[in-house]
UniProtKB/TrEMBL annotation:
Domain ABC transmembrane type-1: 206-412
Gene Ontology cellular component list: plasma membrane
Protein name: Polyamine ABC transporter substrate-binding protein
Organism taxonomic ancestry: Bacteria, Pseudomonadati, Pseudomonadota, Alphaproteobacteria, Rhodospirillales
Record-linked CDD domains: TM_PBP2
Amino acid sequence: MINQGADGELSPSTDGNAAIGGRALKARLRRAERMRKVAAFGLVAPLLLFVIVSFALPIAGMLWRSVEDTEVSSVMPRTIAALKGWGGQDLPSEEVYRAAARDLAEARANGTASAAARRLNYDINGFRTLIMTAARKAPSADEADIRAAFVALDARWGERETWAAVKRASGPLTDFYLLAAVDLQHDASGSIVHVPEERAIYLDVLGRTFRISLTVTLLSLFMAFPVAYLMSTQPAKVANLLMILVLLPFWTSLLVRTAAWVVLLQNEGLVNRLLVWMGVIDAPIRLIYNSIGVHVAMTHVLLPFMILPLYSTMKAIKPHYMRAAISLGAPPAVAFVRVYLPQCLPGIAAGCLLVFILAIGYYITPALVGGAGDQMLSYFIAFYTTDSVNWGMASALGAVLLATTMVLYGVYSRLVGDGAIKMG
C-alpha cells in the first residue's frame, strides 16, 4: 500500500519498500547472469577439456622434456655431488674418482648404467662404451691412486672434457638439448660455443624447413587465386561442382596421394613420358627424390587449404565495386589492384597462414618424395623420437620450431594489422 502525504510526497515506508524491491531485483539479475555464464561455460567445457588434454598438455610435456636432465644424477649421485665444487680448469680431485667408482659399481649391480651411458653419449660420441666398460671394470674406491686406475682403463678418464660432460649432465634442468638444437654447445670451461662444422646441421635444416614452407605457400597462393576467383564468379550450380572437385582430395588418404606422385614423377612415369612426347625434353629428367618432388607433392596436398579461405572471402565481395570503378574511368587492371585485391587480403592472409603452418610440420610427403638433402625438421624430430629414442633432442627441436613459428606469426600479424589499419 502506498502512503502519500498532504503535499503529495511518498512516505518513508514507501521509499524503503521500493529500495528493498530494487535490491532484490538486482540480486535476481546477478543470479540470472551467473547462471547464464555457468550454462555457457558448461557448453564449452568439453571443448576446453579436449584442447587442454590434446594440445596444451602435450606442448607442456614437450617443453619440459627439452630441459629435463635426470638420467646421470639418478645413476651417479655421489659423482655429481663431488663435481659441484670443480671449476673445470684442472682434472677433478681424487674424491671425484672415488665417488665415480662407487656409483659405477652400484650402477652395474642395479643394471642402471646404460641410462647414464646413453645420456652422456648424446654429448660426446663414444661415451656409452666408456661408461659401460668402467662399470664392468670399475676399480675399487679404496685404491691409493684411484685416478691412475681410471686412466689405465681408458685415457679419456684423464681428460677434462670427459668430466665436463658429466658435470653438464648433473641436472635436474639443462640447456644442453636446446643449445644443440641451434648448433651450440658448452665447452670444457662452460662457455657457449658453436659445434664443429661437421656437426652443425640443425640451423640449415630449420632454414630449409622455412624455405620449403614459404615456397609451397607462394605456389599455393599463385595457383589457388584464379581457381577461387572462378568459383566465386560462377552460378551456384557450377560453383558447387567446382567445390566438390576441390574437396575431392580430402576423401583420399594423404599417404595414397603422396605415393601417387611417386608413380607420376618417376623416370618412366606419366609426367616424364608426356614431356618427352610433347618434345619439351629429349630424355626423362629426375623429378622425384629431390626438391622438385617435395614442392610438387606438398603444393598439391595443401592447395585446397588455400582455395577455401580465398573463396570464402571472394564470395562476399560485391561485383558492383569493380563495375563502379571501371565506370569511373579506371582500367580493369587498376580496378582489380586498387579495389578488388585489397578486399581479398583477409582471405589471402588466412590461407597463407594456414598453409605455411601446415607445411612446416610436414613429415610423410618429404620423407617419401624427397632426397636426403630435402628433409625438413619434422623428419629429425621423428628420428629422435622413434629411432634413437632421444626424447630430449626431439622435444628441443620441437620447441625451437614452435618458438620460431610463434615469432614469425607475431611479425606476420603485426604486418597484416598495420596494413589493415593503413587501408582503413
